[in-house]
Amino acid sequence: MAGKEHFERLQALIDLEREAEKQENLRELRKFPVSQRESRGKTVTGLIAEAISGGMGGLTMITLSRAPKGEELAPFHAMNAGDNVLLTLSPGNEFLTVEGTLYKVDEYRVTVAMTRAAPEEPIRGHCQIDLLGSDATYQRMRKALITVSESKRSRLGALREIFLGEQQPERVRAPKVIWFNRALNEYQQSAVKASLAAQDVALVHGPPGTGKTTVLVEIIRQHVARGERVLATAPSNIAVDNILEKLLGTGLRVTRLGHPARTLESLRHGNLAAQIEEDPAYEEVQELDAYRERLIHRKSRHGRGIQQLGHEERQLREREVGKLWRQARDLESEIAR
Ligand SMILES: Nc1ncnc2c1ncn2[C@@H]1O[C@H](COP(=O)(O)OP(=O)(O)OP(=O)(O)O)[C@@H](O)[C@H]1O
Ligand SMILES: [Mg+2]
Question: Which residues have their alpha-adjacent CB atom under 5 A from ion ligand 2?
Answer without folding.
Answer: 212-213
